[in-house]
């Protein structure tokens, strides 16, 4: 087995060279927020969608815009509002009087990178219009179905739920996001740099440094990252501990969890761990890769009970407890 892993490692060393280029390009504009930039790359390589949560003004939109510029792809932005209609997202059929026929006008969802800005300000009807696109990678308008271009990545931003005029996203939709990343305020020194750059307009121009073809190729290589059976078992233990905590000596969590992570959770955790290894330019997954991404993969997949809310226990606290107790291979 040793030889194989070495060969894979060498291949990944070669293929992942662009990751540094991409990070450098994004860092021209994004100050700090390394965690967010890394997670955007994991979503891109893992063919998964990303939900960014944070108060307004933390460069969520800017980060996604910058990524789209650094990867030579089509970018579109949909600002979600309470009066948005599904047709505003996917497109609609327009009657053409001259031809006496209907023609199809495609909506902004037809792009490689779609920014769904403030997704939790729109009602469920519009959010469900995104679901088909996110899950099936296709759009149906009238009786025609269109395949979406690859890579196709939805990056949604949302404001914390207790803000004015926000709707909670339905569980089924939240589950379709591979990662949910919570963004915090920048550090003082970072904010000083942000302030200066904004006042002087000293931002550098972001250039496309990676082609869509390179991204497609990298995605295939990510699948080759070696994952030992022990690591697979570790991932499954983490997932199963969210469903049956009492089997892992976590009886205290039984009354706090209303539902655990779905199989989509285990698939996403395995995929994200492989992407993390790829970004770190390693050909095999170690437990650290799993632990690095577990919070972003699971924080939105665990339902908490009223008891947990009353005790101020969050899904993150539950994930942290599970990670501390489940045995590391």
From TrEMBL:
CDD domains: AAA (cd00009)
Keyword match NAD: no
GO molecular function, one term: ATP hydrolysis activity
InterPro entries: ATPase_AAA-3, CbbQ/NirQ/NorQ/GpvN, ChlI/MoxR_AAA_lid, P-loop_NTPase
Coiled coil: none
Keywords attached to this entry: ATP-binding, Nucleotide-binding
Pfam family, one: AAA_3
Family classification: Belongs to the MoxR family.
Protein name, per record: MoxR-like ATPase
Source organism per UniProt: Wenyingzhuangia marina
